[in-house]
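Dear support,

We are seeing what looks like truncated structure output for some complexes. This example has two components. We would appreciate it if you could run it in full and send us the complete token output so we can diff it against ours.
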Amino acid sequence: MKRFVIAFAIVAVSAFAAERAVAAGKYDPGASDTEIKLGTTWAFSGPVSSTSPVQRQMAGYFAMINDQGGVNGRKINFIALDDGYQPPKTVEQTRRLVEQDKVLLMYGQIGTPTNVAVRPYLNSKKVPQLFVTTGSYSLIDPKKYPWTMGFQSSYAAESRVIARYILTEKPNAKIGILYQDDDFGTDHLQPFLDALGDKAATMVVAKVSYAVTDPTVTSQILSLKAAGADTLYLMAQSRAAAQAVSAARDQGGENLLLFIPYVATAKSVIGPVGDEKLKGLMSTESTKDPTNPVWANDPAVKDYLAWVDKYVPEQDRASDRASPLGYISAQTMVEVLKRAGDDLTRDNIMKVATSLHNVAIPLLLPGITLNTSAEDYFPIHTLQLKRYDGTRWELVGKPVEG
Amino acid sequence: MENFLNQLLSGLATGGLYASIALALVMIYQATHHVNFAQGELAMFSAFLAWTLMQGGFSYWAAFLLTLVLSFIAGAAIERIIIRPIEDKPVLTVVVVFVGLLFVLNSVAGWIYGYDIKSFPSPFPANAWYASRFMSAHQVGMITVTLALLILVFAFFRFTALGLAMRAVAQNPVSSQLVGIRTGWILALGWGLASVIGAVAGMMAAPIVYLDPNMMGGILLYAFAAALLGGLTSPLGAVIGGFVVGVLENLAGAYVVGTEIKLSVALVIIVGVLLLRPSGLFGRTVVTRV
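Here is the complete output from our reference environment:
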């Protein structure tokens, strides 16, 4: 009898305990009651290492969230490994994060060829490849790769917006194109040509490529100038973008109309070119520039600048003040985690991420919200053109759908 | 025609970059008979050193000279501390150590200075009398500096006792020791001088390619092609090789093969030279008794 009572008590208690454990949360590897592990690979070294400040912003934002108690009581553990912008290394590091460090999901990995390399692996293992830090549209294919989702507006959208601007504002332009000879470049090039339609054949006078290992791109700029281009779309990033702008101004003077992708517009990338040469440069934008006096009284901007002073390493502060991309991306990630609540399974996180409707992020330009669905994996569609006036970027026109 | 001229002159300008690093490579080869794969990174580090000094308040020329001195000491120290223990080891060991040095220097520079690109001032004023539509003042200045370096190196090896001693040590260390030359210190001197040349090259390159830990990666490859083309035993060959590679790269990219495989042009030069004329255009063929 006594044994029966004890046995019954044990069963009752364990049933109660088991039920409590289930109620506390459903977890896939990387999530627990106290912690959410996120993994990323980044080009800390290598030819595009000047993008490192973006990752530091993400880490800084998570640090602030952790200081405020975490997401639903769980601290974010953000593990970042260097891949040097080399796809084989990205594969190696991603496997390590998934299999050894057992992260819940891969977040914000940078680069186009790098993300393409790990896409099959992550999709076959059903690990979310969320909010990748690239605008490549060829990377994102909701039907074939349902676990891979973008964040910033696609390069295709940007190229379309720029193409439409040229068609309306400068229809007789002779366009010269410089593009990086990898997926980053072609993801800008093809949509641009498509958006120009049949005018592409007459308007585009030259297309030249460069490799990230080229020490200078002066030769390419000379070729574009020789072809008679008066409008240049420099599909470049990092050091090459800075060199291209500098060489273009040297060769073509200040009347040359120059476009660069928004990923190349951070001060940390093109600052060294010098304000005089940057004057008149155009690009697109989806976020507020916190250093622009027009946003001086915006509460989100004030919060952001306070955050920069507290959480951003000293050497990045000057350029980070003007470009909050990492912050906004991390904010979106945290929002998704918050909405997932206690169900931190990979399935549920993807479900939450693909059902964002008009989610407002205060640092996005007015009129731009996040929208995703099972068919649409780019949260940001809308862009506005901007022009550098010699001191800062000024917005031009209105936000348009890309 | 104008484009051709532009490409040619721009090629000469980049060629100047390649030529100066090639000169440093030849310097080390003349002194030690080893090819220093870390030469580019040493040059980059020197440029960062100069940048740090300028941030600290030094004027350009003060920082320039101080950097040359510090680079000399650093080069000699690397030779004594890192290279000396492996002097007599198989050549593969030496290559591995050089490559390791390359990665270490690159990462340390990135760790200390970060990977954001920084601007670096040029000592040649933008509106100098020798600036023109075709070549900026800095490009003209850089080529002049490279040629000046060439003359100094040539004179050093040809007309000074120290230069002679260095060549002796490289060719026949045992006999050199027997006649009383301090081989150890001569090797350190060779490295020190090569570091100085590299430092000048780095400080000339930085205003054009912008200062960051990866600025020398692409240049080094072309500099190798240049040094091999001209001959690893000939400073004149290295400089001429540098200009030839710079011009060829530009012309091939603009007119012949397109810009996608510009890098391949350099690699083809390397392979071609090694297959057809391993001593380079101006190098001496070395015959060794087996």
